Amino acid sequence: MSTLTAPAAPLHIGPLALDVPVVLAPMAGITNTAFRRLCREYGAGLYVSEMITSRALVERTPESMRLIRHHESESTRSIQLYGVDPKTVAEAVTMLVAEDRADHIDLNFGCPVPKVTRKGGGAALPWKIGLFRDIVEGAVKAAGDIPLTIKMRKGIDSDHLTYLEAGRVAQGAGVASIALHARTAAEFYSGTADWSAIEKLKNEITDVPILGNGDIWSADDALRMVRETGADGVVVGRGCLGRPWLFGDLSAAFKGASSADAGRVQPTLGEVAAAFKRHAELLVEFFEEEDRACRDIRKHVAWYFKGYAVGGDLRASLATVQSLAQLDDLLATLDWSQPYPGADAEGQRGRAGTPKSPSLPDRWLDSRELQETHRAELVGAELHHSGG
User: Fold this and answer.
1) Distance, CA of 271 to CA of 341 (rounded, Å)
2) pLDDT in tens, 302-347
3) Could you confirm whether 39 is annotated as catalytic?
């Protein structure tokens, strides 16, 4: 079993000190205030918002303004921005700082969604290294004393890797940390993350904390990543879907507890049901509408109950639940004493996809510098997609 030889040291991201070196990855439609609050109730870490499009934020669209709101219990307000225009990104950062809306800002350069990359955004953008430099330098300057970080992928595909050069540029710009999802855009979420790339980046970048992302399905995976790569911390995405208690397990593991020790989290079905209900209640508070909250919680059913003996009919009923009262009735039929199923509840969850040739603007790969013909296409890249 993978363990650290000693409890992990606190992770410093600028002035922020995290007792546990764990960050919740931004995920569209998932890491809203409700889910962040639920994860925070289980363990320490940095909990980042859903990705916010910088242009929408500057234009103060109702949805973007709603998404940047934090509950009063969120002591470190963390927001991830996505943008392709240096001026607009800087304006969005300036707004967040001037209006005291964030304690940490992250920039997304990892989105592999074709609708974004075919316009030159997301994981395709660092290929245009000058544009990448302008965005990051402008954002760091606008952030001032607020720590600004970036999250990126290895590159577009195995023949067009960007992460080492982008890491050097980001370090030079003064970012507070760099997170690497150890896949290319072409790999999407398929296959196995290349943790050796995290180690290479850590060896290359010596002045900035490096965080590893990709294939962390358990606390022991996180410990193994840190041990094998030398990463200063981990970013957890799909591994926590339906498992907010993973942050409690991560906290105990990084503090030195083995998988057999008290404090490590292996929930009974009753504890899972209670977390599921709590999630639904927090969604009601977030959306201010019970019907919308129930529609949202339905997508979490398969994730929460993965590996547990819950019948297909009951799963189907939970996936069409109409109210909290109905949810209570359905959960009451479960065997709450059912123990943690072990490996059946672990492993991959969420979207994976298959490797594919990334969609890119015409002749995007011809030059590392931005061509005038691509500027108009970049405008269309600011769509609300997440990932990375």
Assistant:
1) 13
2) 999 999 999 999 999 999 999 999 999 999 999 999 999 988 998 8
3) no
Query: What backbone phi and psi angles, to 5 degrees, belong to 75?
Result: -70, -30
325 SS3 class: helix
Q: Which amino acid is at 84?
A: V
Domain 11-263 architecture: Alpha-Beta Barrel (3.20)
Q: Is residue 106 within 8 Å of 50, Cβ to Cβ?
A: no
Q: Is the pLDDT of residue 388 over 80?
A: no
Instruction: Give residue-wise pLDDT tens across range 161-188.
Output: 999 999 999 999 999 999 999 999 999 9
Upper half-sphere CA count for residue 347 (Cβ side, 13 Å): 8
User: Rounded to whole angstroms, how far apart are CA atoms 277 and 269?
Assistant: 12
Angle, helix 163-173 to helix 129-143, in steps of 10 degrees: 30
Q: Among the options 39, 111, 240, 294, which is catalytic? A: 111
Neighbours of 35 (CB within 10 A): 24
Is 251 within 8 Å of 45 (Cβ atoms)?
yes
| Maximum Cα–Cα distance across the chain | 63
Helix (H, G, I), strand (E, B) or coil at 65: helix
Q: Round to the nearest angstrom and report the end-to-end CA distance of the chain.
A: 28
pTM of the model: 0.93
